[in-house]
Amino acid sequence: MEKPRLWFFLLPGIVVLNLVCLCMAIESPQYEVVHAESDFEVRSYVNSTWMSAPVNELSFEKATLFGFHRLVGLTMRINLQS
After folding, report:
1. How much is the pLDDT for 72?
2. Disulfide-capable partner of 55 in 20, 35, 38, 63 (CB 3.0 to 4.6 Å)?
3. Which residues form the signal peptide (predicted)?
4. Measured between alpha carbons, how far apart are the two ends of the chain, in Å?
């Protein structure tokens, strides 16, 4: 019988560590819980500013890519409409 390889034991730990780091790296808006039930919360969020970029693509992947590049161009003051 073959002995289990080291990666077999390390892989689950690496996956969990990556998920924990990813969750801690994502910014979340500040909020106050106004009312809570067993399966939902009513939250009050602080004021924030949002940007949006209209995209005429049907594909989610293309729309996300084009919208992202358009927003990056706006934030970096680059006119991508040439």
Report:
1. 83
2. 63
3. 1-25
4. 65
Residue 61 φ/ψ region, left for φ over 0, alpha for ψ in the -120 to 50 degree band, beta for the rest = alpha
Q: Which two tokens stand for residue 78?
A: 């680059």
Tokens of 34: 């106004």
Mean pLDDT of the chain: 76
* Residue closest to 25 by CA, chosen among 13, 36, 17: 17
SS (H, E, C) the chain: CCCCCHHHHHHHHHHHHHHHHHHHHCCCCCEEEEEECCCCEEEEECCCCCCCCCCCCCCHHHHHHHHHHHHHHHHCCCCCCC
> Could you tell me which residue, 82 or 48, shows the higher pLDDT?
48
The pLDDT-based confidence of 35 (bands split at 50, 70, 90) is very high
